[in-house]
């Protein structure tokens, strides 16, 4: 049976651990709040970009100059696929990183993207171990910012990496179409995919996939045919061929920014759930230790009383 001193030491250690867990839980809740605010702001920003694209596409539609997304006749499932995975740099977030890696590999297999066609960039050092275990080569690695304020720098680095991928493999994902047809270029870089966790509640999240490039032609057609909710029709002072790529760059920026914010919000949601489970286990452990301590202390007091009574009786014997 453990001594009272040993039980007291264990109780003190568990109480210290409970204080750490409560601190981590509080920090996770604070971080979730700031990422929620950033997500709301991004929603408004994204709606503004879609309105701009809608105005441009309607202008192109009524001018009877349709747009096309390149390439249209390129054979699929032959070129490289750029993959950007969003994970975490810190631990204590449950199976957050393992789940997104497992989901990404399943999606790539379902899309018939074999190992030799994958070009992977990771955001978060905790992903590296799982990818190396799955024998997935990592070409680029990025660290996550400590707050929303540093997200802009990360997104700029990701955009620069995507531009390097495009220049290296000479892709032509999208082009402004005039009257002359564009000569087809067989590019080895077929598409770019984002895999990240999206927060759905304070403690829940789900993995999602976003095809960043090439642009979804159905989405562009939907924007083009969406009713314009105003009597004032939009006008433009810049040429369509110059303005449309600028909006696409903004779309890429906000998509990467949103993926980063969603992933970091999900990371803190996972950490909050893990800390809540840990706090529950710690409370149960403390209850057991305190019960053992009280029992041991009572047994010790009883033994001391019995020793005193036995000694008194021994002294009073004739």
From TrEMBL:
GO (cellular component) term, any one: proton-transporting ATP synthase complex
Topology within the bilayer: Peripheral membrane protein
Coiled-coil annotated spans: 272-299
Primary residence: membrane
Cross-referenced Pfam families: ATP-synt (PF00231)
Stored PANTHER family: ATP SYNTHASE GAMMA CHAIN, ATP SYNTHASE SUBUNIT GAMMA, MITOCHONDRIAL
NCBIfam families: alt_F1F0_F1_gam
Role description: Produces ATP from ADP in the presence of a proton gradient across the membrane. The gamma chain is believed to be important in regulating ATPase activity and the flow of protons through the CF(0) complex.
Name of this chain's protein: F0F1 ATP synthase subunit gamma
């Amino acid at each position: 049976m453990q001594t009272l001193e040993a039980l007291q030491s264990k109780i003190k250690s568990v109480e210290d651990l409970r204080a750490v867990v409560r601190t981590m839980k509080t920090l996770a809740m604070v971080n979730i709040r700031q990422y929620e605010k950033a997500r709301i702001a991004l929603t408004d920003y994204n709606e503004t970009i879609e309105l701009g694209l809608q105005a441009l596409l309607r202008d192109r539609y009524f001018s009877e100059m349709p747009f096309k997304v390149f390439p249209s006749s390129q054979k699929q499932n032959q070129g490289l696929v750029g993959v950007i995975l969003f994970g975490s740099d810190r631990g204590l977030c449950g199976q957050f990183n393992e789940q997104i890696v497992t989901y990404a590999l399943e999606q790539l297999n379902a899309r018939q993207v074999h190992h030799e066609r994958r070009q992977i960039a990771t955001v978060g050092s905790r992903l590296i171990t799982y990818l190396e275990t799955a024998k997935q080569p990592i070409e680029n690695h990025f660290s996550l910012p400590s707050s929303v304020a540093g997200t802009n720098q990360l997104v700029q680095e990701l955009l620069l990496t995507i531009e390097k991928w495009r220049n290296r493999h000479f892709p032509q994902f999208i082009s402004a179409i005039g009257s002359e047809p564009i000569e087809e270029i067989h590019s080895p870089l077929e598409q770019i995919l984002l895999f990240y966790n999206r927060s759905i509640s304070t403690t829940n999240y789900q993995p999602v996939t976003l095809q960043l490039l090439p642009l979804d032609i159905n989405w562009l057609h939907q924007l083009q045919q969406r009713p314009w909710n105003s009597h004032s029709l939009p006008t433009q002072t810049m040429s369509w061929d110059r303005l449309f790529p600028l909006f696409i760059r903004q779309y890429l920026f906000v998509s990467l920014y949103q993926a980063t914010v969603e992933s970091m919000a999900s990371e803190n949601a996972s950490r909050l759930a893990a800390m809540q489970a840990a706090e529950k286990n710690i409370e149960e452990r403390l209850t057991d230790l305190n019960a053992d301590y009280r029992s041991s202390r009572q047994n010790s007091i009883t033994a001391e009383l019995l020793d005193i009574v036995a000694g008194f009786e021994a002294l009073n014997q004739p």
